[in-house]
Amino acid sequence: MAVASCVTNGGEDVALTVNDISAVDGRNQVYANRAGSRKTTITPFSEVLKQQEKNIAASEAAAAKENISSKDTSSQKADNISMGNTSVGNIAETKGTTGTRNSDGTLTTTLADIFRRASEKYGVSYDFLTAVAKAESNFNTNCVSSAGAKGIMQIMPAEAKGLGIQDVFDAEQNIMGSAKLLAAHLEKFNGDTTLAAAAYNAGSGRVKQYGGVPPFKETQNYVKKIAAYMKEGVTVPDKTVTVSPNKLSGDVTKSQKKAGSTSYQTGTSGLNAVAATEEELNQSMVVVGSGDSAVKMTYGAYQRYLELGSLGVG
User: Catalytic pick from 47, 120, 136, 307?
Assistant: First the structure.
């Protein structure tokens, strides 16, 4: 049943907003009352949501622009340049590779150049990428853990396939795939590098389950190590490698800067985070479906929706 709110104003037009996701050809439905003295325009709820999302996106874009401008000080530029990273917010900006393309399609380059291009392409802080690399393998391209994780940023075989890595020991593909994975974690946790690092170590499911950094000694120590490396700064070994770039890298001869790339800052909230209460979860909104069929509901309703589905109901 549709629930409407309305405002009356004598004999003038009246606008109703209805919590109903149905629409006719995506257009508003117009009805006239019997007396014909005024019209009522009913806006489908899906259209209201679309407009609201546009307004939010516009506000976030304006805030991000203002934030970047305020942080782009001369001292920050000097710090970035001294690190060999001339970027605003520590997202590396390049003009393409400094390496050499070989006749067989391979690329001879340096580890530092790969990290710079990975930072630029996936919008992840250069400091964050290199800190994770040092913690994972200390930049060892042939490193294999007891659990089977391989390469510089220790990618598991199942992860490699999902990320599009064809050769896990190829430094270019491994670093690019790892940057892609970190970018996904940062997106999930609103740019919090502490939670993204925890997710990289223990899985995003565990971070969500515990409402912050999981209470595992390994993960707790891991996020502290990443934070320390980011604060101190990490020097990438001066090592030349021959690699085989694939679609993860894009065109290595050109700048891969993504429009609207976000600089993620170090987060500390996850260190003391606690699991959300049921009341807080019920106040959180999720979207089910996509396009015109998308429906917004509370997290609690979503959990009940999933439970009914698993029981074969609904």
Answer: 136
Q: Are strands 14-18 and 4-6 parallel, antiparallel or unpaired?
A: antiparallel
Is residue 260 exposed (0-12), middle (13-18) or buried (19+ Cβ within 10 Å)?
exposed
Q: Which element (helix H / strand E) includes 40?
A: strand 39-43
Q: What is the chain's length? A: 314
Asked whether the beta carbons of 298 and 282 are under 8 A apart, the reply is: yes
Residue 153: how many CA atoms within 13 Å on its side-chain side? Answer: 30
Asked about 136 being catalytic, the answer comes back as: yes
Question: What tokens appear for 233 in the block?
Answer: 């700064």
- Kindly state the greatest CA–CA separation across the chain: 82
Spatial distance between the Cα atoms of 126 and 123, rounded to a whole number of angstroms: 9
pLDDT band at 27 (very low <50, low <70, confident <90, very high): very low
DSSP label at residue 150: B
Element (H, E) at 302: helix 299-310
> CA distances (Å), 179 to each of 52, 62, 111, in order?
31, 26, 14
- Average pLDDT for the chain: 73
Phi, psi of 26 (to 5 degrees): 70, 5
Reduce the DSSP state of residue 265 to 3 states and report it: coil
From residue 292, alpha-carbon distances to 27, 46, 50, 55, 133 in Å are: 12, 6, 9, 18, 42
The reported pLDDT for the residue numbered 87 is 31
DSSP secondary structure letters along 153-168: TTB-HHHHHHHT-S-T
Instruction: Give the pLDDT confidence score for residue 12 in this predicted structure.
Output: 47
Are 302 and 288 a contacting pair, CB within 8 Å? yes
φ, ψ for residue 175 (rounded to 5)? -70, -40
Quote the CA–CA distance of 208 and 211 in Å, as a whole number: 5
How many Cβ atoms from other residues are within 10 Å of residue 211's Cβ?
16
| Order of strands across the sheet that contains 240-243 | 100-101, 107-110, 240-243
Q: What is the DSSP letter of 55?
A: H
Q: Contact 128/262 with Cβ under 8 angstroms? A: no
